Every structure is written in C-alpha cells, then in structure tokens.
User: Which sequence fits this backbone?
C-alpha cells in the first residue's frame, strides 16, 4: 500500500527555538519514521535549514495567503497538516484532507497575519511596505476572526491538551466533533544520557526556560519569591531564554540583591539545554492564564522530566496535564509571589523530594508516535 505524502505547513520550525518548533520537528520526524513521505513547508531561515532524515524541507512560506496558496500546486502532496491555526485557510482551497494542530494561543490571537495583503512584494509597490507593516496589528485581528471560520472546515483538529480542546470549543463551537486531544511527545534526545547521581553538598540549582517576552510566564514573581528566601537558603537560579523583558528582569535581579545568585543564559541550542537540565535540581515555571494567552501544555516540563528534573508549576491550563503531582513535580494553586516562595522554600528545605528516575519514567509515556497515530486515519481522506 502506498502511503500518502503529507505536506506539513509550519512557519515555526527549527533552527528557530520554541515549543511549537519542537512540536513540528518531533511530529515530522515521527511521521517519517513510520514510513510516510513528508515535506515540511516553512519560512526561510537566515542560518540555513536543518537536515532531517526522511523529510524534505522547503523554505517557501511567505506568511500571506495570497502568496502561499501556490503551495497547493505541489503535485506530490496527498494530505496537509498545518501546525498553526493561521494556516487553516488551506482547508478552504483544497479537496485534500487538512489536519490542524493547535497549541492554545494560536487560535486566540493569530501569530501571523496571513490575511494581510502582499502588494509590497511586487514591483514599485515596495514603497508602501512600511505603511502596510504598520497595519499588521489590524491584520492579525482580522486573521484571528477568519480562523474561527477556517478551523471548522478542516478534516480534524489535534489539540495539545484537554484544556486546549476545552478552550477551543468554547471559542469556536463549530469545531465540535473534530477535536482530538493528542498531547505532545518528548524528544528522545532528552532521554538518551544517563541520569546524574544526586549531589547533596552544593547549592540547589533552579532553572526556568521561557520566552522572556510573555508576561504570563511570571519570571518576576519567581525572582521576588527567591529574594524572600536568599537569607535562609543557598541556591543558584538560571534563566534560559530571550525576549523584550530580559533587560527589566536583569534590573529587577540587581534591585532584589540577587545578582550573585541569578544568571541569564539567553537562548540555548538543545545540546546546551539538555546539559543545563541534567545539572539542575528543579525546573520552575508558574505561568498565569491571560485572556489571549495561556500555557496550552508546556513541552518543556516533559523535557525537564526526561532529564530527571521535577517541576514547580501552577495548577492552571495545560500545565496541570504536563506535570504529575508527586511524581514529576508539584504545584502552586495561584502563581503569586507568596505561594511560589512557600513552595520553593519547602523544596529547598527538603520537605518535598522526587526521584529522578520516576520523573524520567513519566516523560517516557509521551511519545511522538502516539501523537502521529491520532492523525493517520485522516490523511487517507
């Protein structure tokens, strides 16, 4: 039997770093490992494209529907899988199956204004580029409204958690009957190295991995919580990630008297990230739920668990499904400074302890093959 050739449309894809990028990479590789022909359509990356065994990568996306509809002329593609809700418009323009993966925020507020005009790409109209880009926020709003019409026209919608499914059906009831909670998989790369032995006679090592441009991540509250604990406990805190908030966070660190305890590492590739996680004792990420932004799942919780590191999370949104209480981590009920300080204090005092091996065993339950198999019945049309 000839398997369908699947075209994966993913504007977010490595070498860029992020949760959706990791999702698209893991999914594409697992699909290819099952023997499916796979072509990934993504944006061009200045540093070049990655190589992925069994996967063709085509840096062709322009982030505009008017230009990207040319993708549908690819004769080899039998089914489409879009990794961002802003590309669900493909379901309006093809009779081929179209599966969408949604991650939580991509349908609440469009990441990419795919409905915006692309006139500035043609001839002398380039002079209007600045004006059109200034209107991008309006086009994002327009694209968000259009997503509500596009997603119900897809063949199926994979959600990264039950929570994301619930929010999607509340916002777009017409998707009822098409949603499938598929969760995510953990990259086997994080499961490869042996778990390190526990080191008792050193400062506790805490780590956060997050985009430092999203207020809901609550890194300032973690810093404020640690400031309350600095006199009683010896710890080191590493913040991994980049974003517009980093200068403010560094200033806050100095103001709180934590400059000798906290380091900002910037963005790390996956080899460096794995090393950091393996060297850590606790992963800390306690995000809030905002009207247009929430933690759909939190793949990094699994990556930490795969490295034997428990997590402190907030019992909100998809994070409640990404961490197993008492097994791979623990929770604060509300992501407020006092609650975070109390939870961190209990961990630093040794009142809460975890087995590195149990953390890894929890992460092993999440595989990309399980996610991919949720979509396979829909590719055949």
Assistant:
């Amino acid at each position: 039997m000839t398997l369908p050739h699947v075209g994966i449309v993913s504007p977010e894809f490595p070498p860029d770093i992020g949760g959706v990028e990791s999702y698209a990479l893991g999914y594409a590789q697992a699909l290819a490992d099952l023997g499916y022909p796979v072509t990934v359509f993504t944006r061009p990356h200045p540093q070049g494209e990655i190589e992925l065994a069994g996967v063709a990568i085509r840096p062709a996306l322009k982030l505009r529907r008017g230009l990207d509809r040319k993708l549908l002329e690819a004769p080899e593609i039998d089914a489409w899988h879009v990794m961002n809700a802003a590309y669900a418009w493909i379901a309006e323009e093809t009779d081929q199956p179209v599966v969408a993966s949604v991650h939580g925020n991509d349908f609440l507020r469009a990441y990419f204004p795919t409905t915006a005009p692309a006139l500035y790409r043609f001839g002398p109209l380039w002079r209007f580029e600045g004006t059109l880009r200034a209107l991008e926020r309006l086009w994002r709003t327009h694209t968000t409204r259009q997503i509500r019409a596009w997603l119900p026209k897809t063949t199926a919608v994979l959600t990264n958690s039950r929570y994301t499914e619930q929010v999607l059906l509340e916002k777009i009831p017409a998707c009822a009957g098409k949603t499938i909670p598929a969760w995510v998989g953990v990259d086997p790369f994080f499961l490869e190295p042996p778990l390190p032995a526990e080191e008792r006679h050193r400062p506790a090592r805490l780590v956060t991995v997050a985009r430092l441009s999203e207020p809901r991540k609550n890194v300032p509250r973690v810093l404020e919580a640690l400031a309350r604990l600095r006199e009683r406990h010896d710890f080191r805190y590493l913040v991994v990630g980049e974003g517009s908030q980093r200068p403010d966070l560094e200033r806050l660190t100095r103001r709180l008297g934590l400059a000798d305890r906290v380091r900002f590492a910037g963005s790390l590739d996956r080899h460096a990230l794995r090393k950091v996680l393996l060297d850590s004792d606790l992963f800390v990420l306690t995000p809030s739920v905002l009207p247009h932004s929430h933690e759909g799942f939190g793949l990094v919780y699994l990556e930490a668990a795969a490295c034997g590191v428990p997590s402190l999370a907030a019992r909100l949104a998809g994070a409640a499904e990404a961490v197993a209480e008492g097994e791979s981590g623990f929770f604060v009920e509300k992501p407020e400074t006092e609650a975070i300080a109390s939870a961190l204090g209990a961990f630093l005092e040794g009142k809460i302890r975890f087995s590195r091996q149990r953390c890894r065993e929890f992460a092993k339950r999440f595989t990309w093959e399980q996610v991919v198999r949720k979509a396979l019945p829909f590719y055949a049309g």
Observations:
- The chain has two domains: 6-185+367-379, 188-363.
- The CA atoms of residues 122 and 217 lie 40 Å apart.
